[in-house]
Structure formats: structure tokens, C-alpha cells
């Protein structure tokens, strides 16, 4: 009777209302089936992480750099790509919240929270993608301002592995630049100079457009907004359309101040600009440096070393001759010193005799 009563109580507890997480039911499965499901969810997590439609960022979590995504983005991703659930095989009919709970239980993801929870001065709202995260106390999936970081190391594609073997070859090719033919040196020089000039012009144009629109209209417009991003794909790197300005509208006093500073800097640059003679001297100096780099080759370097060694030998022989002459001079000077000392002694003896005679 007690057993039946206890069993009846347990059955009544299982019939309570509310969503039962899949993590609780998974504990009753056999070990082999559970291991198979773990492999399925691992494959699912790797596929979702590598998918380009799931937006993610990089942040620092307890002094560790991690890749994370938002809960609402995960929900919308599975809603727009239901075929991804087919990787779960028998568990493909699970709800998005249940899938998230299983990923948390299997330590494939971990729920995080933003470190800065207050709006900073000059901002309207909290950052959409915070750069610093901390562990959240309740490890339950949610799509309400929740962040989740991947805990496993992402597998590198084959092309990245093959590309890693090319870096030593590229490094060796850079080191061998001085021995390249002149035509190859000119090609590399013009290519690098063109790329550098393109980057500088692009950054200058971005700054000019931003400064003009910020001073005149008070709007922050950055063309190619991700061009200086540390972590960005090629598609995001060359995204031309600027992001929406979410910051507070600048004050007119600040805009006026920076406008005056800009005008003052332009006037000073024009007043202290170098003249034509100084520009020609600087151009000649740079041209000489470039010519020295382009015209260098091992034969000239070896001949220059031989000439330098010859000069050193000639200089050393001349110094030896000079030292010998000096030594010889010193040797010749010794009898003269002896003679001078003898004369002085005779002079002193004559003076002594004269004094004695006088006395």
C-alpha cells in the first residue's frame, strides 16, 4: 500500500502543468542512445555555428575570447531554416527552447550576461553586442536579451589548413626580396604602393564625409563601417552602406567648436606647407633611398665589402709605417738627450769651480 501510494504521488507530480525540459527526460534514456544523441547535437551545433545567417560576435568572457550569439537570433534562425533541425534526426520535432536547453545541458553553449548593465553617459540604450560578458546564474535558454557563447573549438576548414602551409613560403619570399630581378622589384613596389595609397585615400574619404556630415547635419555616417573591424567576414568588411546612427544627437556648440578647430588646422597646414625647393629635396632623398633598395644585389654587396676590406688594410699599413717612424724618431732622439744631459753637467761643474776660485 505504501509503495502504491508513493507511486501514485510520483505520477501526480509528473502530471503537473508547465513545460517539461528535454534535459530531464534525456536522463532516463539508455547510455548508448544518449551518446548517439550527444553526437547528433554536436553535429547540429557545429553546423549552426558555421552557418552565415546566424549573426554572432566576439567578446571576452572571464579573460577568454569567445564567440557568442543572441537568443532571439537563434530562434529566428531556426524559424527561417527549419531544414537544419533534420540533423537532430528523431529529435527534430523539438521546440527551439528545448533544443537550446539540450545544448546548455551538453555544455555546447553557455548562457552569459553583459558586464555593464547601466546605460553609459551619452548613450540612449545598452550596447546591442557587448564586448565583455560574464556567466549567467540561471543556465536556461531564453530569447529575452540573453547571450550564449559557444564552448567548443570550431573546426578549421581544409582550405585554412592548406593556407597555413603557405605562410612559411611567403615569409621566405619576403626575405628574398633583395635578390629579385629589377622588374620583379618594381612590380612589387608599385603594387604595394598602390594598395597603401588606396587604403589611405579610402580612410581619408571616410573621415572627410563623416566630419562634413557631422558638423553640418549632426549625423554620424561611416561608409564602409567594418573596414577597420578586427573580426569581420569579407562580406561584412566591404559592406558599403553605413550603419544606423543610434547615438544621441550632438550639441551645436560641440559641432561649432570642432568646425573652428578644423579651419585652424587647415590654415596652419597651408601656412607651414613646404615650398617647391623643399619638396624637390625630399623627393630626391626618397628616390635615392628607393634606388638603393632596388639596385642592391649580392655582387655589389660583396664587391663593396672587398673594397672596404682593402681600405682597412691600406689604412692599417699606413698607421704601422707612421708608428715605426715615431718609434725610430724616439730611438734617434735618445743620443741627443744623453748629449744634452752631459753638457748640462759640465756647465754645472764649471760654475762650481768659478765660485770656489772667487772664494
UniProtKB/TrEMBL annotation:
Entry-linked InterPro entries: Sec62 (IPR004728)
Extent of Acidic residues compositional bias: 337-351
Region of interest (Disordered), ranges: 1-36, 312-359
Membrane topology reported for the UniProt record: Multi-pass membrane protein
One Pfam family linked to the record: Sec62
GO biological process terms, semicolon-separated: post-translational protein targeting to membrane, translocation
Predominant location category: endoplasmic reticulum
Name the UniProt record assigns to this protein: Translocation protein SEC62
Organism annotation: Buddleja alternifolia
Amino acid at each position: 500500500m505504501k509503495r502504491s501510494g508513493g507511486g501514485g504521488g510520483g505520477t501526480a507530480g509528473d502530471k503537473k502543468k508547465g513545460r517539461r525540459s528535454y534535459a530531464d527526460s534525456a536522463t532516463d534514456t539508455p547510455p548508448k542512445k544518449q551518446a548517439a544523441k550527444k553526437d547528433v547535437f554536436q553535429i547540429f551545433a557545429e553546423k549552426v555555428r558555421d552557418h552565415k545567417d546566424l549573426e554572432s560576435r566576439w567578446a571576452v568572457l572571464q579573460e577568454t575570447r569567445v564567440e557568442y550569439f543572441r537568443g532571439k537570433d537563434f530562434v529566428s534562425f531556426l524559424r527561417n531554416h527549419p531544414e537544419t533541425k533534420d540533423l537532430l534526426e528523431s529529435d527534430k520535432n523539438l521546440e527551439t527552447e528545448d533544443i537550446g536547453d539540450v545544448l546548455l545541458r551538453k555544455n555546447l553553449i553557455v548562457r552569459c550576461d553583459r558586464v555593464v548593465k547601466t546605460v553609459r553617459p551619452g548613450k540612449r540604450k545598452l550596447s546591442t553586442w557587448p564586448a565583455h560578458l560574464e556567466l549567467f546564474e540561471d543556465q536556461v535558454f531564453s530569447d529575452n536579451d540573453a547571450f550564449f557563447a559557444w564552448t567548443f573549438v570550431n573546426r578549421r576548414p581544409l582550405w585554412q589548413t592548406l593556407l597555413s602551409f603557405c605562410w612559411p613560403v611567403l615569409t621566405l619570399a619576403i626575405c628574398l626580396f633583395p635578390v629579385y630581378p629589377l622588374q620583379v622589384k618594381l612590380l612589387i613596389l608599385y603594387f604595394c604602393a598602390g594598395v597603401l595609397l588606396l587604403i589611405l585615400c579610402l580612410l581619408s574619404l571616410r573621415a572627410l564625409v563623416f566630419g562634413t556630415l557631422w558638423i553640418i547635419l549632426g549625423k554620424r555616417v561611416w561608409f564602409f563601417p567594418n573596414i577597420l573591424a578586427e573580426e569581420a567576414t569579407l562580406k561584412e568588411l566591404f559592406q558599403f552602406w553605413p550603419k544606423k546612427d543610434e547615438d544621441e544627437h550632438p550639441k551645436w556648440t560641440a559641432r561649432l567648436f570642432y568646425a573652428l578647430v578644423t579651419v585652424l588646422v587647415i590654415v596652419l597646414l597651408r601656412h607651414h606647407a613646404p615650398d617647391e625647393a623643399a619638396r624637390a629635396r625630399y623627393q630626391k632623398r626618397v628616390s635615392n633611398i628607393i634606388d638603393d633598395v632596388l639596385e642592391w644585389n649580392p655582387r655589389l654587396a660583396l664587391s663593396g665589402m672587398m673594397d672596404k676590406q682593402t681600405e682597412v688594410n691600406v689604412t692599417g699599413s699606413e698607421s704601422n709605417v707612421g708608428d715605426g717612424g715615431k718609434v725610430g724618431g724616439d730611438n734617434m732622439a735618445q743620443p741627443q738627450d744623453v748629449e744634452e744631459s752631459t753638457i748640462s753637467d759640465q756647465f754645472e761643474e764649471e760654475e762650481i769651480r768659478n765660485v770656489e776660485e772667487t772664494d
